[in-house]
Amino acid sequence: MDLPTVIDKYYTQHKSQSLDDSSNLDKQYSPSQWTTRLTPETIVGNHVETMVSATKNARSNINCETGVKYSDLGPNCLLDIYKPAEVTKGTPVFVFIHGGYWQECSRDVSGHAAESVTKMGAIYVGIGYDLCPSVSMAEIVSQVQAAFQFIRHRFPYTVGIHIMGHSAGAHLATMILAQNSHDFPTLLPVTIYAVSGVFDLRPLIETSVNNALKMTTEDAEEMSPMDPKNFKKIYANSRQSTRFIICIAENDSPAFHDQSVRFYEMLSATGVQCDFIEFENTDHFNIVEKSTDPNYLMNDVIKNQLSSLSTK
């Protein structure tokens, strides 16, 4: 299937469509409404507390550089670098980009999986960025793209860079590839783990999420990975050495499932290396919280991908 046909099928034809009527979009894009573990009123606070606690433990127990400045684009352009017991020039790098609908959380929730990943022998990096409404969505995307460039130059001999983004972070991780080809090293092995993400931002225009984002329809299109302009760059930068691993929680909403499935099918239809995994007995929040457990499936996925690139 050629690229224009793929874009038309998975993006353009959905331009005027919503999974549900607009009055239900707020619920569809409110992950707290779909969890079965806790109440909608307590699940977000519990998630932040869990992630902050795990990050504090990681900072205390792992050799870590905190608050490393990666760009002058904003005050929160800082990252934390957690190092495994042994570091060589080729050590793989694993990056985590937090969620929070581009308006909440910080790198203080980004170190939850540092212990698990550094034990696999990888350098772990937790990225911070500025938040809406203080900055625009476009500025956040530019910051995260700058973070990637910083990491690439900080670790130029790595055997591969692995980038995991959760929720809004999955969108940002994907948009790292929406750079001009001369800014993106096509031969560098890159794995994108897009966890419970939003890849078509247009439905958010009609939700309360947009109160802080303040996106117009044009903004949402310009910042959507599935938009033709961005998808063409993502496709071009993915053809040789990039793999997408699209992850979704069993108890994510139908809207989040639709977003992940549609983006996965769009990538697959163009021949981009891509896997799709639904994590049983998880929701939008504990799909990443569980990474503190070394026996969690997500850690097996990461370990297998690290190994596959290290042996090439």
Automatic annotation (TrEMBL):
<dbReference type="InterPro" id="IPR027519">
    <property type="entry name" value="KFase_ver/fungi-typ"/>
</dbReference>
<comment type="subunit">
    <text>Homodimer.</text>
</comment>
<keyword id="KW-0378">Hydrolase</keyword>
<feature type="active site" description="Nucleophile">
    <location>
        <position position="167"/>
    </location>
</feature>
<feature type="active site">
    <location>
        <position position="284"/>
    </location>
</feature>
<dbReference type="GO" id="GO:0004061">
    <property type="term" value="F:arylformamidase activity"/>
</dbReference>
<feature type="active site">
    <location>
        <position position="252"/>
    </location>
</feature>
<dbReference type="GO" id="GO:0019441">
    <property type="term" value="P:L-tryptophan catabolic process to kynurenine"/>
</dbReference>
<feature type="domain" description="BD-FAE-like">
    <location>
        <begin position="79"/>
        <end position="263"/>
    </location>
</feature>
<feature type="short sequence motif" description="HGGXW">
    <location>
        <begin position="98"/>
        <end position="102"/>
    </location>
</feature>
<dbReference type="Pfam" id="PF20434">
    <property type="entry name" value="BD-FAE"/>
</dbReference>
<dbReference type="InterPro" id="IPR050300">
    <property type="entry name" value="GDXG_lipolytic_enzyme"/>
</dbReference>
<protein>
    <recommendedName>
        <fullName>Kynurenine formamidase</fullName>
        <ecNumber>3.5.1.9</ecNumber>
    </recommendedName>
</protein>
<comment type="similarity">
    <text>Belongs to the kynurenine formamidase family.</text>
</comment>
<comment type="function">
    <text>Catalyzes the hydrolysis of N-formyl-L-kynurenine to L-kynurenine, the second step in the kynurenine pathway of tryptophan degradation. Required for elimination of toxic metabolites.</text>
</comment>
<dbReference type="InterPro" id="IPR049492">
    <property type="entry name" value="BD-FAE-like_dom"/>
</dbReference>
<keyword id="KW-0823">Tryptophan catabolism</keyword>
<comment type="pathway">
    <text>Amino-acid degradation; L-tryptophan degradation via kynurenine pathway; L-kynurenine from L-tryptophan: step 2/2.</text>
</comment>
<dbReference type="InterPro" id="IPR029058">
    <property type="entry name" value="AB_hydrolase_fold"/>
</dbReference>
